[in-house]
């Protein structure tokens, strides 16, 4: 066999580290335990009165809640702001550098500006303070080093107790950013509760994601109906309905009476089992003789995620659910493939 042309040459695996560096299980376990201890220190020493004052200030905000920070603290500030936005709370991230070059125009006297900084000595944030104060903004610092310049310059400070960074040099911001995230996201959920945010309101802010779809979509939004339904009568011969069984792509036949009441279902699996058991006699069998008279069903106003759960429930999973109204009239069918295609 000849060699591959140059354009199809496969890349060689990366060379092994000659020093054979590795992390032992014990080392990793000890690091997780140490980080757990540092986080426990934060929880045990957090001043809840400060946290409550901070939370109530945000709850009572009538403007936009801006968050700012530099470096890793900036990433955290941005994420917390996005969390609030997803909860329907007016919030935005303000880059301290961009703010000093025009973006500070977004601030007004009704707004709150929350500044995240471990040290409280971040130069970019300190330069931002007088400019933001000139706009009448209420300033809050969230810091970990006591008696810092940023806290002294703001209207409110929240101290996040930091025992030390997990970094062996006590330098890389890994524990400090972890407690910033924990603090900010916990406050966000407190705001969610204070504003009595409902599932429907939350879902409305996530219409394209799986979260929103699972809370918004009902069975009637994702079911097949009318001409898409693979229907037949109980007196129809099985062999005469093979085209209908395969053409509609549902993997089943829905057996109905003259009034469109659901009588049962006949599946691809039922066809195979009947053929194996009956042989040539299958040519004389009707759908009604072999159908399942007690299929799982669901109503049109049930949540689509409930339909998926019902399909997957014991004793065995199914691939579809007939959709019926209160009079047992067939109005649709929802399939597992259709739910997955809808993003659920």
UniProtKB/TrEMBL annotation:
Q: Site (Catalytically relevant): which residue positions?
A: 72, 124, 165, 206
Highest taxon of the lineage: Eukaryota
Biased composition (Low complexity) is annotated at 1-10
Q: One matching Pfam family, short form? A: SIS
Is-annotated flag, keyword Transcription? no
Q: CBS domain location, by residue?
A: 223-282, 291-344
**A biological-process GO annotation:** carbohydrate metabolic process
Output the Gene Ontology terms for molecular function.
Answer: carbohydrate derivative binding; isomerase activity
Ranges for domain SIS = 54-197
Query: SUPFAM superfamilies given for it?
Result: SIS domain
Give the matching Gene3D superfamilies.
CBS-domain (3.10.580.10), Glucose-6-phosphate isomerase like protein, domain 1 (3.40.50.10490)
Keywords noted in UniProt? CBS domain, Repeat
The record's region (Disordered) falls at 1-22
The stretch of residues making up the signal peptide is: none
Its family remark reads: Belongs to the SIS family. GutQ/KpsF subfamily.
Please report the name of this protein according to its UniProt entry. Arabinose 5-phosphate isomerase
Q: Which organism is it from?
A: Gossypium stocksii
Which taxonomic lineage does the organism of this UniProt entry have?
A: Eukaryota, Viridiplantae, Streptophyta, Embryophyta, Tracheophyta
């Amino acid at each position: 066999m000849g060699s591959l042309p140059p354009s199809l040459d496969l890349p060689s695996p990366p060379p092994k580290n000659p020093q054979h560096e590795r992390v032992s299980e014990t080392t990793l376990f000890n690091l997780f335990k140490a980080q757990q201890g540092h986080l426990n220190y934060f929880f045990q020493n957090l001043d809840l009165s400060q946290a409550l004052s901070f939370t109530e200030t945000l709850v009572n905000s009538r403007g936009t809640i801006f968050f700012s920070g530099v470096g890793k603290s900036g990433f955290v500030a941005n994420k917390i702001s996005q969390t609030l936005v997803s909860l329907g709370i007016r919030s935005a991230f303000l880059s301290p550098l961009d703010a000093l070059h025009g973006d500070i125009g977004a601030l007004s006297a009704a707004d709150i500006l929350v500044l995240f900084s471990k040290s409280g000595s971040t130069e970019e944030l300190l330069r931002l303070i007088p400019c933001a104060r000139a706009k009448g903004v209420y300033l809050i610092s969230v810091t970990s080093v006591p008696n810092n310049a940023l806290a002294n310059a703001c209207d409110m400070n929240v101290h996040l107790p930091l025992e030390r960074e997990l970094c062996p040099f006590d330098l890389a911001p890994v524990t400090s950013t972890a407690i910033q995230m924990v603090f900010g996201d916990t406050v966000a959920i407190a705001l969610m509760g204070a504003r009595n945010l409902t599932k429907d309101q939350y879902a409305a802010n996530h219409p394209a994601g799986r979260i929103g779809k699972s809370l918004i979509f009902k069975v009637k939004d994702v079911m097949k109906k009318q001409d898409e339904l693979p229907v037949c009568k109980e007196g129809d011969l099985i062999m005469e309905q093979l085209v209908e069984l395969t053409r509609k792509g549902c993997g089943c036949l829905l057996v109905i009476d003259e009034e469109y009441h659901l009588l049962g279902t006949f599946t691809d699996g039922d066809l195979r089992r009947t053929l194996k058991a009956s042989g040539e006699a299958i040519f004389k069998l009707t759908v009604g003789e072999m159908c399942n008279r007690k299929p799982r069903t669901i109503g049109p106003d049930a949540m689509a995620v409930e339909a998926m759960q019902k399909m997957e429930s014991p004793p065995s999973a199914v691939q579809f659910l007939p959709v019926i109204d209160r009079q047992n009239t067939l109005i649709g069918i929802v399939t597992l493939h259709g739910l997955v295609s809808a993003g659920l």
